[in-house]
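job 3f2a | input accepted
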Amino acid sequence: MKVICNRGALLEAITVAGNVVQARTPKPVLQCLKLTAADDRLTVAATDMEAGIRYVDAQVQIEQPGETLLPADKFRDIVRECVDDTLAIETSEGDGAGTASIRGQDSHFKIFTQKASDFPPVPDFEGEPDFTLAGGHLKQLVGQTLFAAAKESTRYAFNGVLLVVKE
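job 3f2a | predicted structure (167 res):
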């Protein structure tokens, strides 16, 4: 896989998808982000086996399609701290895991990857949506009620926010 990305758009994709990645898990692949380059877009996927996020970034130039698994924390730190406007990501796969080179104008990083085939599938949505809601409006609604949700995880039922749709 070889892609050239807009750093700002890539950082947003990593940050959004990285919200699902668990710091501690018995499966190391769940600490990774799956990058898939195909059809003039880069898809960044993450899952914790309960929730999954798939973020599509169209601000890329794909020179060689492919997919790879990158450690989420290391990859996010590299992209966040880099000052270049564009980054080139190139992977080399061996007989299983390989390496990824992340290059900016004045920087070069190399991190180890895992086999993309080991990553659990992030399911697609099936059927038609029950309703649609603008993202900004949903953010406002959640923001107005989130203060009432519990911060500790001892009582799991109180950590959520109930959304009721009428008509």
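job 3f2a | The chain has a mean pLDDT of 89.
job 3f2a | closed
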